[in-house]
Amino acid sequence: MAQQGQYRHQPRILAIVLAGGAGGRLGVLTDHRAKPAMPLGGSFRLIDIPLSNLHHSGISDVWIMEQYQPKTINDHLRNGRPWDLDRTRGGLLVLPPFSGREGEGFAEGNADGLLRQSAFIRDFAPDLVLVLSSDHLYRLDYRDVVDTHLRAGAALTMVTVDFDGDASPHGVVTVDDDGRVTGFSYKPDEPQSRIVAAEVFLYSAEALLDALDRLDGQQENLGDYGHHLVPHLVEQHAVVEHRLQGYWRDLGTPANYLRAHLDLVAGSGPDLADPAWPILTEPPHVAPAFVGEGAVIAGSLIAPGARVHGTVRRSVIGAGAVIEAGAVVEDSVVLNRVRIGSGVSVRWAIVDSDAAVSGDRIGGGPDEPVVVGRDGEPGD
């Protein structure tokens, strides 16, 4: 396979969506669901973002690497139909943990997961392997990343963002004036730049498989991409960045999850219904939202099936949720089928699906929102 210049044919691209993590940073929100199955914007799921980007980018060979709470993802995937991936050839393939041959067992990190699937990747024989996380909010035509990769003749092209927050929880990248990656540090205590990896990686398949084989002989466990795989490629091969312009946010913590939803209602986040690039999902099978007489709604997203009789400001209300008369919800995310009782004030909070919230006041702050579990009580 070529690594310099253009491929003589249209490159065969395999997309692998990483959907196996337990999402422990989200606390009780992921006790009963996989993080990629978390609701987004009232009507969507986190995994809809990469799958929709893939659809609009014309990439139709898509593997979903699952591990934790897989049924909560599979119930949503519907064999890939919402993203036109229910095909006779190609399309959607789910990769659960397995036993019985090389690579069996549970992965201990996303790079370890790729290693366990490396025999299947080799059999598929792609030219390029596009590896995507499923807990970020952004819009990107992956064909632009492919163009960057081919022009550079790179072994790895990583999508990066100029991040305006604390870079230390991310992979931090240094680049030269030509966009070549000169350094990479995974979750450093003292970041050397503001440029972080957006966890969209395009590998030349040959370089990826060779690196996995080499590292497997050197390391007891490959862990996550930033532990050994990406540093090895940065040291041994040509690695370049593709800078993402526009909105990007990691939704893996309660604060970021809430902030992303507040960005959506404020109009500073991506337009999920943009007719040129809509987010695709399994359509709801519920009645339209109902707004009662005397209800107050301002600057909010109200999902189908919700019923609002109280006051909702700058919030997202999920499908089937009920906000009773006399209840106030502000700067919050209320997930599906929640009931906020009369007289309850909810602010700076995330309320999990099926919770019934009663009492007086529940709230936190923009940087430390309260997470209310299914039992209606604030989580740890």
TrEMBL record:
Keywords: Glycogen biosynthesis, Nucleotidyltransferase, Transferase. Residues 15-264 form the Nucleotidyl transferase domain. GO terms for biological process: glycogen biosynthetic process. The keyword Cell inner membrane does not apply. InterPro entries: ADP-Glc_PPase, GlmU/GlgC-like_hexapep, NTP_transferase_dom, Nucleotide-diphossugar_trans, Trimer_LpxA-like_sf. The keyword Ubl conjugation does not apply. It comes from the Bacteria. Residues 360-380 are annotated as: Disordered. GO terms for molecular function: glucose-1-phosphate adenylyltransferase activity. Residues 295-363 form the Glucose-1-phosphate adenylyltransferase/Bifunctional protein GlmU-like C-terminal hexapeptide domain. PANTHER family: GLUCOSE-1-PHOSPHATE ADENYLYLTRANSFERASE (PTHR43523:SF2), GLUCOSE-1-PHOSPHATE ADENYLYLTRANSFERASE-RELATED (PTHR43523). Belongs to the bacterial/plant glucose-1-phosphate adenylyltransferase family. This is Glucose-1-phosphate adenylyltransferase. The lineage of its organism: Bacteria, Bacillati, Actinomycetota, Actinomycetes, Micrococcales.
